[in-house]
Design a protein that fits this description.
Elements lengths: L2 E6 L5 H8 L6 E6 L2 E5 L5 H14 L2 E6 L9 E4 L1 H5 L4 H7 L4 H12 L5 H10 L7 H9 L7 H10 L3 E9 H11 L3 E10 L2 E7 L5 H15 L6 E5 L5 H5 L3 E5 L3 H4 L4 E3 L6 H5 L2
Parallel strand pairs: 5-6, 5-9, 6-7, 9-10, 10-11
Antiparallel strand pairs: 1-3, 1-4, 2-3, 7-8
Helix pairs in contact: 1-2, 4-5, 5-6
């Protein structure tokens, strides 16, 4: 199989990218933009991959080895995690901050994202700490703290233009996914429902929890609805609870992800924005 190497970094010069690419002895080099190169027909042995990875990380560059010829046209769906993937924050941590409990909740969040704590248990524990909070805090988090990740809008515009459908599937909450779905024109959104009684959070989730298994089932279900195979899905995530849905995808993308996720993803974007996937599939 002929392999290409895509190198990209927001602060990387063509010279630096070329020097890193040379480690893979490419047959040809194609400049994709001021900060991205595609090195074609490269060596992709374990030693080459390790040398490229080390040089790229030191230079603040994302390096992706990918089969030649892959493009957005190969896919029908882009599925995204929400917290710390499509957006820059963990919503539950910011909600907890309204209770003065952000350190306690964030510690549980981090353990779950690293895969050290089962997600359903972690969510139940975190949501319980929010009991009694005025539900207006959710709107404050959305309006004051929620920001899209770099490159999110450019990525979405490109995949929509290419005819792909979009899915936002989150272990977070519908309060945020529904607003993002409307704001960004996403096709499908699925997340947990926070219980609110008399204007205050009860500390419980209504219905089943959207955990790793449910995320995977959701990707498979949406693909079935589209009449395509999960191999025609691009799945983006950052935490351990994204690994199962990433495992059935045709292309898995780790965005600013935990090490356990980066190690198992096809593409790792540590420096580029979400639109870095466009260079990978250019």
């Amino acid at each position: 199989m002929t392999m290409n190497l895509v190198l990209q970094g927001p602060g990387a010069s063509p010279e630096r990218l070329g020097a890193i690419g040379a480690l893979a002895k490419p047959a040809r080099v194609h400049r994709l933009s001021a900060h991205a190169l595609r090195c074609e027909d490269v060596g992709a042995t374990a030693d080459v991959r390790a040398a490229v990875a080390a040089a790229a990380f030191e230079a603040g560059v994302d390096a992706t080895f990918i089969a030649a010829g892959r493009s957005l046209a190969d896919f029908r769906l882009v599925a995204m995690d929400m917290d710390s993937t499509l957006i820059t924050i963990e919503c539950i941590d910011e909600i907890a901050d309204m209770q003065g409990l952000k350190p306690q909740v964030a510690e549980i969040t981090e353990a779950a994202m690293r895969g050290e704590l089962e997600f359903s248990e972690s969510l139940t524990r975190r949501v319980a700490l929010l009991a009694g909070l005025d539900a207006a805090a959710l709107a404050r988090v959305y309006e004051e703290r929620l920001r899209l990740s770099p490159g999110a809008e450019a990525m979405l515009a490109a995949v929509k233009a290419a005819g792909l459908r979009t899915l936002l599937v989150s272990g977070g909450f519908t309060f945020f996914t529904e607003r993002l779905q409307a704001r960004l024109g996403l096709d499908v959104a699925h997340a947990n429902v926070l219980e609110v009684v008399e204007g205050r959070l009860t500390g419980r989730v209504v219905g089943g929890i959207v955990d790793a298994e449910e995320k995977m089932r959701t990707v498979a279900r949406v693909c079935q609805d589209l009449g395509c195979d999960p191999a025609q899905a691009i799945v983006m995530g950052d935490g351990a609870n994204d690994l199962k849905m990433m495992s059935i995808a045709g292309l898995s993308v780790a965005f600013r992800a935990k090490p356990v996720v980066q190690a198992r993803a096809d593409v790792a974007l540590n420096f580029s924005g979400l639109d870095g996937i466009l260079s990978v599939l250019a």
